[in-house]
Design brief:
The chain is of the alpha+beta class. The protein is about 25% helix and about 25% strand. The chain has 11 helices and 16 strands.
């Protein structure tokens, strides 16, 4: 299930991470600017590589200087490796800058391990004779195969980075999607109404559990009302009813925290989740009373899919085992001006004496495990 480990070199604040071991549940904690978001940004980079939008992503976000560790004057390459949990599939890449401060591939390998001889073999090496390649082979290898069947997404790329932070008036999550846009939940929640509509028809018990979970943190909420729009049947609004009221409300009348919680619960309880779910600050906008409920849902979801979250919430961290926690810090290296991000997974056994009296969140707050300013 999901990823066994990830290794990152010269990406933003991360100089050289070494192999970061991942488990079913992974909770990244650390001070502001420590590198938690950069770790998640690395997966965004992988997503763009897999989609074939790497160059556009780099150009849009500041070109090589914005991606290389302390810019192109200090780093001339960026590299990474992701290994599937079954340790039979991995992806390696190395990006090198050119004179125009663009990045191109000079290593681009998707490898599988042979069960018989236990050796790794590359499906394709995308840099024959040292030629520069600006998009990855792995992107072009997806899509429809010759016999017409859909190729399966490799496990190392089967992850979704959900970000429901945009709840502004014109946010996608508040606008009505096409009613048939329900194959999977979009990473920004833009098709939430259509996806919930599908669940109400095909996964009724799951849909009703989502409604029940929403009621547990928003007692005014009664139920969703999800039907094709009368004027435009190709669209569907996220309508809902309040307890004791007969009129319908839309997504704009939810508080930001409630709307984010609905999207989070839907993502975590979806019937066919990706191998790995990644969320930055899932607690954003939630009332403290909802934190325990969120933690329980995250833990339950981790039985079926790998979970990676980054959080600033002491209360949320306190709901997890020390074994789930990865402390992210920044340390000096080479010169006083340069710092780099480090990752350290905590151990329940090593902290057992402390855990007799304190929760993990309290140990973080007291700076026993690091990850503080």
């Amino acid at each position: 299930m999901g990823l066994h480990s990830v290794e990152i070199h010269n990406f933003k604040s991360i100089k050289s991470s070494g192999p970061i071991r991942l488990g079913a549940m992974n909770v990244l904690i650390g001070a502001n600017g420590s590198g938690k978001s950069n770790f998640i940004s690395f997966f965004k980079l992988l997503k763009k590589i897999h989609e074939g939008n790497f160059q556009f992503h780099v150009a849009k976000n500041g070109r090589a200087d914005a991606f290389l560790h302390f810019g192109s004057k200090n780093s001339d390459f960026l590299a990474g490796e992701i290994l599937a949990d079954n340790q039979k599939e991995k992806y390696q890449f190395r990006l090198v800058k050119d004179a125009t401060i663009n990045l191109f591939f000079n290593v681009d390998n998707y490898l599988t391990r042979d069960n018989l001889n236990d050796k790794w073999s590359a499906i394709k090496v995308n840099t024959p004779n040292g030629h520069r390649t600006f998009e990855s082979y792995i992107a072009r290898s997806n899509g429809i195969s010759e016999n017409g069947n859909q190729r399966k997404v490799p496990t190392v790329f089967d992850f979704s980075i959900y970000h429901f932070n945009d709840t502004s008036f014109n946010a996608n999550i508040k606008n009505p999607p096409n009613i048939t846009d329900y194959a999977y939940l979009h990473e920004d929640g833009g098709n939430l109404a259509a996806f919930l509509y599908r669940l109400s028809l095909t996964e009724k018990a799951r849909f009703e559990y989502i409604e029940e979970t929403v009621r547990s943190i928003a007692p005014f909420f009664d139920k969703f009302y999800l039907e094709p729009d009368d004027i435009n049947p190709n669209q569907i609004f996220l309508h809902w009813q309040e307890k004791g009221a007969s009129s319908l409300f839309n997504a704009h009348t939810f508080s930001d925290g409630t709307l984010r919680f609905i999207a989070l619960v839907t993502a975590l309880l979806q019937p066919k989740p990706p191998e790995t779910i990644i969320i930055d600050e899932p607690e954003l906008g939630l009332h403290p009373s909802a934190i325990g409920k969120l933690a329980a849902i995250l833990q339950s979801a981790s039985v079926k899919t790998q979970i990676i979250i980054a959080t600033q919430s002491v209360d949320l961290v306190s709901q997890f085992s020390a074994n789930d926690i990865i402390v992210v810090d920044r340390e000096r290296h080479q010169s006083p001006q340069l710092v780099h991000t480090t990752f350290k997974r905590q151990s329940e056994k090593e902290l057992e004496h402390w855990l007799e009296d304190y929760s993990v969140g309290e140990l973080w707050e007291k700076n026993v495990i690091g990850g503080r300013p």
